[in-house]
Write a structure and sequence with these properties.
Helix content of chain A: 55-70%
Largest interface: A-B, 89 and 89 residues
CATH topology of the largest domain in chain A: Butyryl-Coa Dehydrogenase, subunit A, domain 1
Number of helices of chain A: 21
CATH architecture of the largest domain in chain A: Orthogonal Bundle
Distance between the termini of chain A: 51 Å
Oligomer: homodimer
CATH class of the largest domain in chain A: Mainly Alpha
């Protein structure tokens, strides 16, 4: 059985677990009625199942390749991308003024979830373009908006993000790419960028690069970085792709996974660029784009996990060893915990999306703070879970899982990048305990208060599960109170396990909601029990680790580590 | 810096953590003096570093291939294998009567650890041969021993294990391969086998297949299975490779990792075979071989983890993002926990090997029971840890970890199989809570008693760490008492987390020993603190999961799982 988009699962979450209703009730998103959402998700799901998913293995077997300086996409990708563009899926959340649908991020995230499960390598193309659209909407001049946004939104052109250089990965401020004024309002951009996802492709008629570079008077570090639009083909007076710019793809990387996604080394050699936003404010613009990108990368982990789960579930029903292996307790354990964890991660991601939408629609600081708090959790937990689930999927297949033809291994290889790009999961964890706790833990406490209140109320219906969730939330709250009193180094030393504990508790919270909504004895309640009894208990070990502080890690010297 | 065999680490463990001294004190292993062990490990380590490790990447890039029915090994493998054979490393633990060194398994396991870190794909070749030697030593007739053992021990010939068939993986009893008497004492073996590791190769002059097949009067299921020696080339009257047997390699698998190891589909078409052991007793013979193979597969996980750790440690010192990334708390956390977990898994594996050796040397049932108890833990924990550590190694490399040229990803791909073959880790866990608890938990309790006694004694020196270890062991003991009272289905439903909890406690036990031996403030004590404070706490969540029983997993129906 091929991949089937989890439309009804997403619908259930948006109806009952992290309701979209408050979003639809705002003026901005009034169009996102239940009927509209149903129609959108059904249509996107159909495309993912019928058109996108069948290209997934071809992308793995026949990676994108560089031919005379031009990237040739994997077989079938051009047609699959055309379906995405024609359906308007690039611009789900984009401004209607430039051709977008103007729908909530919650819908966009849901479609990205399904697209990621269908073909992660291909999905990166519209995802990067979405990030670029968002950056331009927030920071670009009206001229640039008018020129680029319609074509990006329609999928005629695609967009890339050019941050990384060999010496400047997480330390973006170390970049050396330069932008010199040409005297006519444009800039000459020169430098080399690496890890540029979909840095070129033949699915579109132009590729638009957003490039971070330093102006001659740019200070060292992140404060001296500006953002430039550097198109592959410079638009002519009619806005159509014109003469070639001075940039090229030097080479493509040979990667563990997402073979269908060309990862380019780009060289800019005095390429003509246009400033986006204020001089020296490039990082701020980049961060706008990055926050949503981070959420959507978390969702990539969820999409791949879903696909891996479906494949493993089917195999476990078909494969007979004594009985169908799904009847073996340990295989059932793997499948049940996969399904439970996918639900948890998906709910967290959609909660983040709903908070983003509420923040946009209402302008309320509390919603914005909640979205900001949930973003690193959604990203790191979604991707860690995705890698784990893909690994369990391989394991359930036994020896067949290690054979590439089966397809289970591809999910594992593809998923592995999601914990790394858009800020490694270590950076997400540092973001959570650092920037996202600059409010003294206020946003975290507010969320945990809701978790505890709901758990208390649930005691009447599901006493055992509710009690476990309440106790875990209470413990996390105490740990959070402790955390915000620590210095940064101690927080960082416990950041990754703290994030994991937070995700475990939130997952339990959403499972409890689902169980209450569906009622005792329902499949939802049974799945919630699996999560709360088997996965939630991990929070305690994670919090113990989170509180161990930095000193013991540094007591172990670099010399000790090598001995 | 290329791979460096962890000779001094292994020496420390064998001197202070799971001492080899009692083994050397037996008559059987009197030759294994400290000086001898030092010389052996140093020499093996030198070979691994200088000759074996440099071939690792070549094996990945240029997989073994099938050419006119013959397997051509990866570049450099023939020469590397020759070094292993010439050094006598195939026969470290083999009977001196047939040219082996007759040394303890603890030494063999140590060398296999280093070989696995150097080149896992290649190491499988001598490992499988070692398994075959052991099976022949225990079950074959004197004629077969005299004919095959010298050549297998010297590495002139290699050996394979032919169990799996398409329909018969974990359910070995479902196999269909037949053996018909030829009337001259030989048998005609016919059938197809899959997943045959090193099923053919050009490193040796003959390949000896041990094949499970059913005699005409063999009962259905595992009780009707017999074991046959089926050589690729039938030995002539002088014992040299003679005429070709009726068997062939049909194809090679395209795998996620260990590309240098040819995984063959084998076809036996009335091939001439010789019965090994009693008719219908093939499974018992297979199990002899499998127990040591399981321990050594656990060790493969450890070896790959070591190599992944070394690579990540070097990268973290060289890679500067603001500072060398090893100074970032989260990277340091990853490296410290990797190192701590590798130590734990290695100590468990060597404890298992020492117990095996003591069992062989003394014949004492308690030692045999301990070895049997530790085998599934060493296998499953060593390999799960290996996969996890290889994943952390990729993560520490950031984007570079996803690029194949870096080599970090190869460790992850290679390690993945170790949790699957020689009995999946799920089967190991079932073995632990099933067969290995048929004694009512006696062997487990005896070991936990030692852990608790030592932890109590350590309170004087390292009170905090000792207390944590004691409490964990006590909790595990209580859970074990509970476990042995449960029916099998409930045990199986908690088997994997129970095994993980057991490994966590044992790891803490050996870390505590190391800390006591090296003294307060030592690197060993600091590493023990990292393990006991950051990793040991996971035992509690694992035990909670282990006790949840089967019912909740089956309450969730197959239909619920698909919805």
């Amino acid at each position: 059985m091929p991949y089937r988009s989890p439309v009804s699962e997403i619908r259930f979450i948006l109806d009952h677990v992290v309701p979209l209703a408050p979003v639809s009730a705002t003026e901005r998103y009034a169009e996102a009625t239940p009927d509209m959402v149903e129609a959108i998700l059904t249509e996107a799901g159909r495309m993912c199942d019928e058109i996108i998913a069948p290209t997934n293995r071809d992308g793995d077997l026949t990676p994108a390749r560089l031919e005379n300086g031009v990237v040739r996409s994997s077989p079938g990708f051009k047609e699959a991308f055309a379906a995405i563009a024609e359906g308007g899926w690039v611009g789900i959340a984009a401004d209607p003024e430039y051709g977008g649908m103007g729908l909530p991020q919650a819908i966009n995230v849901s479609v990205n979830d399904m697209l990621s499960g269908a073909n992660l390598a291909l999905q990166l193309n519209p995802l990067l373009t979405q990030g670029q659209i968002e950056a331009l909407e927030s920071h670009a001049s009206d001229e640039i908006k008018a020129l680029y946004l319609p074509k990006l939104t329609s999928g005629e052109w695609s967009g890339t993000m050019n941050l990384t250089e060999p010496q400047a990965g997480s330390d973006v401020g170390a970049l050396r790419t330069k932008a010199e004024p040409n005297g006519d309002g444009t800039y000459a951009v020169s430098g080399q960028k690496i890890f540029i996802t979909w840095g070129d492709n033949d699915c579109v008629s132009n590729v638009c690069h957003l490039v971070l570079a330093r102006l001659p008077d740019g200070a060292p570090g992140t404060k001296g970085i500006s953002l430039f639009m550097v198109p592959k083909l410079i638009p002519d007076e009619n806005g159509n792709p014109g003469v070639a710019n001075s940039l090229k793809v030097v080479s493509l990387e040979h990667k563990l996974g997402i073979h269908g996604s060309p990862t380019c080394v780009m060289s800019f050699e005095g390429a003509t660029g246009w400033l986006v936003g204020e001089p020296h404010k490039g990082m701020a613009a980049m961060f706008t784009m990055m926050n949503n990108a981070r959420l959507n990368v978390g969702v990539q982990g969820i999409g791949v996990a879903e696909a891996a789960y479906q494949k493993a579930l089917e195999y476990a029903q078909d494969r007979v060893q004594f009985t169908p292996i799904i009847e073996h307790a340990d295989v059932r354990r793997m499948l049940a915990t996969m399904k439970a964890d996918i639900f948890a991660a998906r709910s967290i991601a959609l909660a983040c999306a709903v908070a983003l939408d509420m923040g946009h629609a209402t302008g309320e600081a509390d919603w914005k703070a909640r979205a900001a708090l949930l973003t690193p959790i959604a990203k790191a937990f979604g991707t860690d879970m995705g890698i784990w689930a893909a690994g369990e999927g391989v394991q359930i297949h036994g020896g067949m899982g290690f054979i590439e033809e089966t397809g289970a291994a591809q999910y594992l290889r593809d998923a592995r990048i999601t914990a790394i790009y858009e800020g490694t999961n270590g950076i997400q964890a540092m973001d959570l305990v650092g920037r996202k706790m600059m409010d003294g833990g206020k946003a975290a406490m507010a969320l945990l208060q809701e978790v505890e209140d709901e758990a208390k109320a649930a005691r009447a219906t599901l006493p055992d599960l509710a009690e476990d969730v309440w106790a875990a939330a209470e413990s996390l709250r105490e740990s959070t109170e402790w955390l915000v009193e620590q210095d940064m180094q101690d927080r960082f030393a416990g950041a990754a396990p703290y994030l994991r504990a937070f995700a475990r508790v939130l997952g339990a919270h959403y499972h409890l909601r689902a169980a209450i909504a569906a009622g005792e004895g329902s499949a939802r309640a049974k799945l919630a029990a699996v999560y709360i009894r088997r996965l939630l208990p991990q929070y305690a070990a994670a919090l113990a680790e989170a509180k161990d502080g930095a000193q013991p890690l540094y007591d172990l010297t670099v010399e000790d580590m090598g001995a």
